[in-house]
Write a structure and sequence with these properties.
The structure is a single chain. This protein is of the alpha/beta class. The chain is built from 11 helices and 7 strands. The protein has helices at 5-8, 16-35, 41-50, 57-67, 145-157, 171-174, 176-184, 201-218, 223-238, 252-262, 268-271, and strands at 98-99, 105-115, 118-127, 133-139, 164-167, 188-191, 274-275. The strands form 2 sheets. The chain has a 5-stranded mixed beta sheet with strand order 4-3-2-5-6, sandwiched between helices. Strands 1-7 form a two-stranded antiparallel sheet. Strand 2 and strand 3 (118-127) form a beta hairpin. The longest helix has 20 residues, at 16-35. The N and C termini lie far apart (70 Å).
Length: 276
């Protein structure tokens, strides 16, 4: 027929409907990336699917590359633990612990937030099962009063039956007042073993997300900046909106709600399994 091989294999260009769909996906990606600049393509894919958009991660990655959207890299995390003291320390109770429900294991730690005049400190407690921040406090010093306030907040709103509280061996968590408060609420005390920095990985992961997705974006200048923004990020973003890959791309509050709604620990196997 005197036609070229190229003509034989020619395929028409994508139709307008396909282009329109790609544009809609790109617009949705841009909005999510703007709100959560540290979301990678997999988490953005999960967010799109929650919006009832049928798309796979390869498509999202391709569009993100085409749009020049990249996940921002986190800065280095610095520990503030001071374990050089003569107070009593406690054994590690969480090794190989199986988590079957919320309020089985809380992990606590303190981090710093830099401002123009120095540092502000944040003490936080996370539920290891749901990844929800159940207590937090902000202060100007590393005094034991700071984590005490976070612990009191958590106790007021959560169930402490058969609960383990895990932390490092920092002086704040070994203080008599802190230990007395745990004992008064029948909370078991657990501390990271020497040379085992990953025992408290749940709260460390939260601090990493906090710094990368909130603190480094705003570059706080004053103490008021911290007290205004941090509660908002914890309560309105991290606990209620931010998608966690370890939770099947659900926010902690939604994950807990589903678990409680099922009203059975048997459903745990349907959601996720965690060993510490």
């Amino acid at each position: 027929m005197n036609i070229s091989r190229l003509t034989y294999y020619y395929r028409p260009k994508r139709n307008l409907a396909k282009k329109k769909r790609d544009a809609e996906i790109a617009d949705a990606i841009e909005k999510i990336a703007y709100q959560y600049p540290y979301y990678g393509y997999r988490r953005i894919t999960a967010a799109l699917r929650r919006k009832k958009m049928a798309v796979n991660h390869k498509k999202v990655l391709k569009l993100m590359k085409k749009m020049g959207i990249q996940c921002r890299k986190a800065r280095r995390f610095v520990s503030t633990t001071n374990s050089k003291h003569s107070l009593k320390v406690y054994p590690n109770l969480v090794k190989d612990l199986f988590l079957e429900r919320p309020d089985r294991l809380w992990c606590a730690d303190i981090t710093y937030i830099r401002i123009l005049t120095g540092f502000v400190y944040l003490a936080a407690i996370i539920d290891a099962f749901s990844r929800k921040i159940v207590g937090y406090a902000i202060g100007r010093t590393l005094a034991a009063k700071l984590p005490m306030e976070a612990l009191k907040m958590a106790i007021r709103s959560r169930n402490t039956d058969s609960l383990i509280h895990h932390s490092d061996k920092g002086i704040q968590y070994c203080s008599h007042d802190y230990i007395d408060l745990l004992n008064a609420n029948d909370i078991l005390v657990s501390m990271s073993a020497k040379g085992s920095p990953y025992d408290n990985a749940f709260i460390e992961s939260f601090f990493k997300s906090l710094k990368a997705e909130e603190v480094y974006l705003w570059e706080y200048e004053t103490y008021s900046d911290v007290t205004d923004r941090i509660p908002y990020f914890i309560e309105d973003v991290y606990n209620s909106k931010r998608l966690h890959s370890s939770l099947g791309y659900m926010p902690p509050e939604e994950f807990e709600h589903i678990f409680i709604e099922k009203n059975s620990c048997n459903v745990y196997s349907e959601l996720r399994q965690v060993s510490v």
